[in-house]
Design a protein that fits this description.
The protein is mainly alpha-helical and about 70 residues long. The protein is built from 4 helices and no strands. About 75% of the residues lie in helices and about 0% in strands.
Length: about 70
């Protein structure tokens, strides 16, 4: 799974690049190094990072609100 976004097509590409964000980490550097990147792909990658970052921040804040320390 070193380059899932390049190796797969169709539904698998959506699965590895959108649903499983580690596909972004492997796909975009590979596209850039091979010269197949574009402005559209850069914007798409940036949007995915912002979306997953926002989801993570929301989950983190909700988790902190519900946190109860065991030792206190």
């Amino acid at each position: 799974m070193k380059i899932p976004g390049v190796a797969f097509k169709g539904m698998f590409k959506i699965l590895f690049c959108c649903i499983m964000p580690y596909g972004i980490m492997a796909t975009f550097p590979t596209l850039s190094l091979s010269g197949k990147d574009s402005v559209t792909m850069l914007l798409y990658g940036t949007a995915m990072v912002i979306i997953f970052g926002g989801i993570t921040a929301i989950m983190w804040k909700r988790g902190l609100k519900r946190y109860n320390s065991v030792s206190s």
